[in-house]
Write a structure and sequence with these properties.
Helices cover about 45% and strands about 15% of the residues. It is α+β, with helices and mostly antiparallel strands and about 300 residues long. It has a five-stranded antiparallel β-sheet with strand order 3-2-11-10-9, sandwiched between helices. The structure holds glutamine.
Amino acid sequence: MQDLLNDIAGKMKLATERGEVANYIPQLAHVDPQQFGIAVATPDGQVFAAGDAREPFSIQSISKVFALTLALGKQGDSLWQYVGREPSGDPFNSIVQLEHESGKPRNPFINAGAIAVVDAIMMGHEPKEVLAELLSFVRFLANDDRLYFDHEVAASELEHKHRNASLAHFMKAFGRLHHDVDKVIGTYFHQCAVAMNCVQLAQAGLFLVSDGVNQVTGTRVVSAQRARRINSLMMMCGHYDGSGEFAFRVGLPGKSGVGGGILAIAPARASIAVWSPGLDNIGNSLLGTRALEMLVQETGWSVFGH
Ligand code: GLN
């Protein structure tokens, strides 16, 4: 495994076509596109890493997996009143479907859906409390207390909030948000601004590898059924309108973020994190996807067969 990751990281370092770094969040536009990291964590406690796997990056939409897990823990299946579970086939920040579907977002991984999930987590709590809970939950998942919010990234996104604010206002107009729009999106931006490195992110995904149990720490995070369902949502919706392409090329449940990270789960085998800041035209890491494709090709880990 270590040789394979070294080989992949070596190839990715040399790639000339690297995609475009997200620039609608100015703080992300400063990140050096030459970076590439990969980490594989297995349920028996091994961690393999190569390239810039210990460089922190903004996990952005990958945080939606952790927020969904927390929200399901609080609300159980009643969460599905607020958000659907179908692929959207639209870009992550699209507003069009919301109008047709009376403000109910298609799934928890597009921005509108993630905003609805934050609103659900907030029930009766102030943003500060929610953020403290979110951060301690992600620290617990990764078994690492060093994780932090990158407040500069959150502030940068807040300055350019208009698209997400529009989604939230639109849902509010349909009576679908319970809290003040500014409070909800402020909380959402901080959630997206959690900084992690590939090793930490791979460790945070371990509970989805082993039916809801993090076998390394010996803790049950969610039931087996819930872990399976979160994986299926990642497979169907984790890459927005690129989810079909990701399933075709990689064949693993995965969640991307505009910081260039991807968390992919090979059930019963490993949790994998890749990071390279350059994105394809859909907003998914270009080299991250390519690296996962190579890894799956070599390991036969696709859930669809060898
Ligand atoms: N915080 C980002 C946004 O709301 C997350 C998007 C993403 O990672 N795809 O636009």
